[in-house]
Amino acid sequence: MINIAKIYTDKDASLDALKGKKIAVLGYGNQGRAWALNLRDSGLDVTVGLERQGKSWEKATKDGFTPVKTDEAVRNAEVIIFLVPDMIQRTIWLEKVKPNMKKGADLVFAHGFNIHFRMIEPPADSDVYMVAPKGPGDTVRDYYVAGGGVPVLVAAYQNVSGKAMEKALAVAKGIGATRSGALESSFKEETETDLVGEQTILVGGIMELMRASFETLVEMGYQPEVAYFETINEVKMIVDIIHSKGLSGMLRAVSDTAKYGGMTVGKKVINEDVRKRIREAAERVRDGQFASEWVEEYNRGMPTVVNGLKEVDNSLEQKVANELRDLIERGKPKK
Ligand SMILES: NC(=O)C1=CN([C@@H]2O[C@H](COP(=O)(O)OP(=O)(O)OC[C@H]3O[C@@H](n4cnc5c(N)ncnc54)[C@H](O)[C@@H]3O)[C@@H](O)[C@H]2O)C=CC1
Ligand SMILES: CC(=O)[C@](C)(O)C(=O)O
Ligand SMILES: [Mg+2]
Ligand SMILES: [Mg+2]
């Protein structure tokens, strides 16, 4: 056993810290929808706050909420949960939340970006805590409905009441996370590791490694569908085994040929140079360079994100994904 992180489960958490309190969930997107539904199903009093009528408003209404404007949602709330995009949070905080919130209401985050990089300066009399899911919003909802939960990191940044961690654990329980585990962390550790993770592996690394392998096979004249099954579709199956049994379990589930090839060639592809660049990316996150760059990109209308999405939408790998979707869905286990 390593036993470094403090891990809380259902028996360590109680919903009592939040029972009867008015909770405003700001945003109804990836995480917002999942949290609002899970917290409501856990018996808590949730109001969805949104900036305007639109897609999120419709979705929330369809799910049985009566959304209200952000300023109205925070006016009565004792707990305010920020689930709008990170780059919007500062403006919403300054224009809608700060001027209208109850004195001393809790400020809750699913990611530490705005607090850690000082884009939001919380009032001194509020508890400020975080419950950061280590998984996508849809998974947070799906696991909860199926009786499980996605693990989270919990942290307190300001603990005026002395009960910030108790309340963070109540939120974690309410979204189902303590059925799995809530790991105690800090805003700094969560923010930095989350950014490094999504850049180097979860989003950037996995996508570029898939594309590099796929495109190489296609360039060499192999059929795109065959390349897709091998370099993109099968990743889920391998990752599922890693997910339940770790890397050792995965190695034992593949052939000796794959073990040998994987162990020798893997280290040549992901070599010291790649590790050096992962380290560089992590240093840029830690010293705030990435955050400044992202704020600037956002303020220019996110041209890199907009164009990048278009490029992927039109890529051969996405066209093959669209072509094979029915086949892939047909083959999935039926419950
Ligand atoms: N996407 C995910 O699965 C994860 C997200 N987080 C964190 O959760 C928080 C929310 O992220 P997501 O759920 O991805 O957000 P999202 O992008 O899905 O949020 C969309 C919601 O924000 C509202 N919104 C979008 N633009 C707006 C604007 N200009 N003004 C007002 N409202 C606007 C939309 O109407 C919608 O309700 C962030 O702090 C993020 O880092 C944490 C873990 C995983
Ligand atoms: C899904 C998640 O946890 C990410 C990748 O960190 C995010 O969406 O920001
Ligand atoms: Mg994350
Ligand atoms: Mg993230």
Give an overview in words.
- Substrate binds at residue 255.
- GO terms for molecular function: ketol-acid reductoisomerase activity; magnesium ion binding.
- Its cofactor is Mg(2+).
- Pathway: Amino-acid biosynthesis; L-valine biosynthesis; L-valine from pyruvate: step 2/4; Amino-acid biosynthesis; L-isoleucine biosynthesis; L-isoleucine from 2-oxobutanoate: step 2/4.
- It is a single chain.
- This protein has 335 residues and is of the alpha/beta class.
- The protein has two domains: 7-185, Rossmann fold (3-Layer(aba) Sandwich); 203-270 and 302-331, no CATH class.
- It is built from 16 helices and nine strands.
- A nine-stranded mixed β-sheet has the order 1-9-8-7-6-5-2-3-4.
- Strand 5, helix 4 (86-97) and strand 6 form a beta-alpha-beta unit.
- Helix 1 (30-41) runs parallel beside helix 6 (137-145) and helix 8 (187-202) packs antiparallel against helix 13 (272-286).
- The longest helix is centred in the C-terminal third of the chain and has 19 residues, at 235-253.
- The radius of gyration is 22 Å and the shape is globular.
- The model has no long low-confidence stretch (mean pLDDT 97).
